[in-house]
Amino acid sequence: MEFITRWLSELSSILNPALERLNIDVDKLTDLLAYDPAQPLLFNTGLFMVLFVLFLAFYRLLGGFRVAKMIFVILFSLYFYYKSSGVYCLILIGVCLSDYILGLCMQQSVGEGRGKAFLRKFIVFLNVGINIGMLAYFKYFNLIIDTFSQFFNTRIDAMTLLLPAGISFFTFRSISYIVDIYRGEIKACRNLLDYMFFLTFFPPLLAGPVVRAKDMLPQIKANPSPTREMTSEGIFLIITGLVKKVIIADFISGNFVDRVFDNPALYSGFENLMATFGFTIQLYCDFSGYSDMAIGIALLLGYRFKENFNAPFKAQNPTEFWHRWHISLSTWLRDYVYIPLGGNRCSRPRAYFNQFATMVIGGLWHGASWMYVIWGAVHGVLLVIHKMLRSVLRMSASGAVVTGDGELMMISAPQKPSSWMRGVNALFTFVLIALVFMLFRAPSMEDVGMMWHQIIFDFHISVAPQFVGGYLTIVVAMAAGYLLHISPSSWTCRLRALFDASPVIVQALVLALVLLIVIQVRQSDIVPFIYLQY
Questions:
Q1: Which 3 state secondary structure label does DSSP give 303?
Q2: Which pLDDT value is given to residue 407?
Q3: What is the pLDDT of residues 393-437, one digit of tens each?
Q4: For residue 409, what are the β-bridge partners?
Q5: Which DSSP helix (H) or strand (E) runs through 489?
Q6: How far apart are CA 513 and CA 234, in angstroms?
Q7: What residues are paired with 408 via a beta bridge?
Q8: How far apart are alpha carbons 192 and 198 in whole angstroms?
C-alpha cells in the first residue's frame, strides 16, 4: 500500500502544474484516488462511473493489441481491488501466482502411476488448504476464538482483521480452477497473463457471479470485441442494476427495514412482518442489481457471463428456489461440495445428509456468524423435507398395470398443477423463504425471538392503514420491486428488444435519465452492496 501511495504522490507531482492550471486540487485528487476503507470503488459511485468511462475509451483504443489490452485490464482490476482492500491486493496477486504454478504442476502430473495420482491429489489438497486457510484466518478466526472462549468460559481478545473484499468469491474461483484440471475438464493455463486476467477481472471480483475458468478462459484466448448487441444489452443491464440497487434496495433499507431490525420491540408484529418481506426484496434487488451491473460491464468489454438470478420468487418449492437464486454459488456448491460428498449416488439417508451439509457449508460461506450457519441449516432442512415429500407423493401417484406378459408394472402419472395451484405454491414458498431470511438479517437469535414474539403476540393488523399512510413511498417501492419480479419474462424480453433496437442516442438519453433519478433519490452516503462483506 505504501508503494501505491508513493506512486500516486509522484504522479501527482508530475501532473501538478497542469492540474493547477485547470483549478484542480491535487491533494484532494490524490486522496480521492488513494485507498480509503470508508470509500471503496463501487459500481454505484460517481468516481467509478468517471473512471470506467475513461477506462472504456482507452480499452476501445487498444483494439486488437491483445497483450497491451490484457495488461491494461489487469492493472485497472488490481487498482479497483486496491481501492476496496488496500494492501490486501497483494493477496490476490499471490493467489494468481500460486494457482498458475499449481495448475502447471497438475498438468505435468497427468498420466498413469501411483506417484502421479498422489501428486495430483496433493496439489488439490494444497490449493484447497491455501484458500480455506485464508478464509479461516481473515473471515472466521474471530468467530472461532469467540466460540472457544464461550465454550471453555475463558477470555481471549479478538484480533482486529480487515476482511479482504470478495475473498469468498475469488477463493472459490481458485478452487474450481485446480479441481477442474484434476478432473480433466480443462487444461492448465500456460499464459500467466490469461490467468491473472481471469482471476482479477474486476466486474465479478467483489461480489460475483462466481465465474469459472472453463467458461471464461476460452473467451480470454479469443480476445473478443463487444458487438453492438452486447453493448446494448450491457447498458440495459447496468440500468436495471442501478434501479434495483439505488431506487429500490437502498431506499427500502435506509427508510424502513434497518429501523425495524435494529429495534424490533419498538414495532408491532405487522411492521416486523413487513420489514421481513421488505428485507427479502431489498436483498434480492441489492444482490441481483450487482450481478446485473457486473454482467453488463463485462458485456461492454466483450465478455459474457451466465445469469445469476432467474426470478427466484416464482419458485414452486425450496429446491427450485435454489435453482433460481445465486445460481453461480448454488451450482458451485453442487459441483464441488455436494457431489464430492456423494451426492445422490448413495443411500437415501446419506443423500439427505449430503444435501443438509452442503447448505450448512453454504451458510457458513456467507459470513463469520452462527446466524448464517443456522440460516444455511434451516434451508438444508427445508430441502430435505421437500425431497422426502416429493418422494412420498411420487409413490402415491404411481399406479399398477399388467403388461402383455402378465407382469405387474408400476407407472407414474404426474399431473401438471393448475395455474391457481402454481400461484399458491409460489406464494407459500416465498413466505417461507422470506421468514427464513429473517435469520440472515437479524443480528442474533434474541432479535429473531423478539420479532417472532411481536408477530405472534402483538401483531395488530389494525396498524396496517397507518403503516400504508406513513410509509406510502416504502410500500410503493416494495410493491414495484415485487411486481417487476413476478411480471412475465416475456415483458422483460420485449423491453430489452425495444431498447436494443433503439438508436444509440436514445439509449444514452435513457441512461442519463436513470443516472439523474439515481442522483436525486440516493442517500447522502453511498450504501455498499450487501454481498461485499462476503
A1: coil
A2: 46
A3: 776 655 544 444 444 444 444 567 777 888 889 999 999 999 999
A4: 401
A5: helix 489-501
A6: 17
A7: 402
A8: 10
Separation of alpha carbons 37 and 39, rounded Å: 6
For residue 326, indicate whether it is catalytic.
Answer: no
525 versus 82: the higher-pLDDT residue is 82
Q: Pick from 290, 274, 303, 321: which is nearest to 428 by CA?
A: 321
C-alpha cell at 214: 472453463
Round to whole Å and give the CA distance between 178 and 186. 9
Rounded to 5°, the CA angle 154-366-163 comes to: 70
Of 326, 366, 386, 485, the catalytic one is: 366
Q: Which three three-digit cell numbers place residue 351?
A: 443423500
**Is the model's pLDDT at 51 over the cut of 50?**
yes
The secondary structure of residue 248, as a DSSP letter, is: I
CA distance 364 to 102: 27
Residue 241 banded pLDDT, cuts 50, 70, 90:
very high
- Residue 392 is predicted with a pLDDT of 78
pLDDT of residue 268: 93
Report the chain's terminal Cα–Cα distance, integer Å: 22
- Taking CA atoms, 424 is separated from 62, 314, 397, 430, 447, in Å, by 54, 11, 20, 10, 30
Averaged pLDDT score across all residues of the chain: 85
pLDDT score of 53 more than 70: yes
- CB count, 10 Å around CB of 117? 12
